[in-house]
Amino acid sequence: MLIQGACHCRNITFTLRWEPDPTEFPARACDCSFCMKHGGVWTSYPAGVLEVIVQDAAQVSAYSHGTRTAEFQVCGTCGVCPVVTSRIDETLYAVVSVNAFENVDAGMVRRSATSFDGEQADDRLARRKRNWIGSVVVRIQ
Asked: What is the pTM of this model?
């Protein structure tokens, strides 16, 4: 399945190849203060291939907080954060927002609450290496 997503104004778009086609998407509703304020609900597929295209890089803010090991890619025009990235050992990993999906039946998204409170930075990076999308390309137009 080729999943398409974008911020509201389409400055940041993504395509995620998820094969074989999923019957549902596991989605993590993070309880950190940033995700709570933005309604962040994330999914990833470690075997997936993600391409992110940015039309105007000057309108994208890479916001980090907490352990500062992830960057929330926030569009400065519309305020939507469709992608979060984390560079680990020279590899770029990512998760995508299910709220930014454009061609997926919402009934396929299985949301569950997630808390990473108390997780140490090394454990957090190891979890991302296991669970986040590890084939990520970002293109600036």
From this structure: 0.95
